[in-house]
Write a structure and sequence with these properties.
By secondary structure, this protein is α/β, with parallel strands linked by helices. The protein is 32% helix and 25% strand. The strands form 2 sheets. The chain has a 7-stranded mixed beta sheet with strand order 5-4-3-6-7-9-8, sandwiched between helices. Strands 1-2 form a two-stranded antiparallel ribbon. Helix 6 links the parallel strand 6 and strand 7 (165-175). It is globular and about 45 Å long. Keywords: Methyltransferase, Transferase. Pfam families: Methyltransf_16.
Length: 227
């Protein structure tokens, strides 16, 4: 399910309104807004350390973006990166494949008045190690939402996540089952590389707790644990 067929999506993050233009008639899924990006942003907003007292916040350390670097994979229209930027992740690179870059850059420009700056972008095909290295990893946060839908891209995606995230960093994943084959392979391969934590559904933002969408936290397994 796409979030809506509307040509524009509005998302409020704190007191700032983002307006994301989408093209549902495009040949590329990245030019539409998909639900998991919204779910991920609103989860972070709910538990943001500046909004939720540390004593009551199980994610206070996880979501402390001070002096942290991030990269989004398969950013599409850029919703997750823009939302997390507004929540304090101020050093973030927004990536996708070449055909999606015009829509991504258009939306970043469209929201520049809200963002107060232009976010950094880079073309990235997950299997291209040269492009991955050019991003200058490691990153404290790797962000991905609604990126598991083709079986043939699962292995490159997981390798990209592994190469980009710091040993003590995390992958923030917004996930919805799109393809049973891709789903099965993704979770089988993830278990070899990452410790996986699923956010309880009741911890999602109550207005963005879609039944089909989940948020996961991935952390790299220690090398001795893998061997």
């Amino acid at each position: 399910m796409k979030f809506t067929q509307s040509p524009a999506i509005e998302l409020c993050v704190h007191d700032t309104r983002l307006s994301i233009q989408q093209d549902n008639g495009s040949m590329h899924v990245g030019t539409s807004v998909w639900p998991c990006s919204l779910v991920l942003v609103k989860f972070v907003e709910r538990w943001h350390p500046l909004r939720c007292a540390a004593a009551d916040n199980p994610y206070a350390d996880l979501l402390n973006f001070t002096n942290k670097r991030g990269v989004e994979l398969g950013a599409g229209c850029g919703v997750a990166s823009m939302g997390l930027y507004l929540l304090g992740l101020h050093d973030v690179v927004v990536t996708d494949i070449a055909p999606v870059m015009p829509a991504l850059k258009h939306n970043l420009k469209r929201n520049k008045p809200a963002l107060k700056k232009s976010l950094k972008t880079a073309q990235l095909y997950w299997g291209n190690e040269e492009q991955t290295n050019s991003l200058k990893p490691p990153f404290d946060f790797v962000i991905a939402a609604d990126v598991v839908y083709l079986e043939e891209t699962v292995a490159p995606l997981i390798r990209a996540m592994e190469r980009l995230v710091a040993d003590d960093g995390v992958v923030l994943l917004g996930y919805q089952l799109r393809s049973p084959e891709a789903h099965e392979l993704f979770w089988a391969m993830c278990g070899d590389v990452f410790e996986v934590e699923k956010i309880p559904h009741e911890h999602l933002h109550p207005e963005y707790a879609y039944e089909e969408a989940d948020v996961y936290i991935f952390r790299k397994k220690r090398k001795e644990a893998i061997s």
